[in-house]
Amino acid sequence: MKTITCLHCEEQFSGETPEAVQMAMLPHYKEAHKEVINTVNEEGKKEWFAEFNRRWEAAAEE
Ligand SMILES: [Zn+2]
Hints:
Elements: E1 2-5, E2 12-15, H1 18-32, H2 34-39, H3 42-58
Antiparallel strand pairs: 1-2
Bound molecules: zinc ion.
């Protein structure tokens, strides 16, 4: 299990896999970061996943 901080605020999400954490973040993004969901382009998505993966790799297993 790893805990990742939201890329747009300080909220934290935990899960066994990167996909599980991303699924947990999605409703949060829809609620708290609607403008990100609504305005992100393909390049922005790539950057989001790249940053997410960096954080996932850096996070300690709990
Ligand atoms: Zn957030």
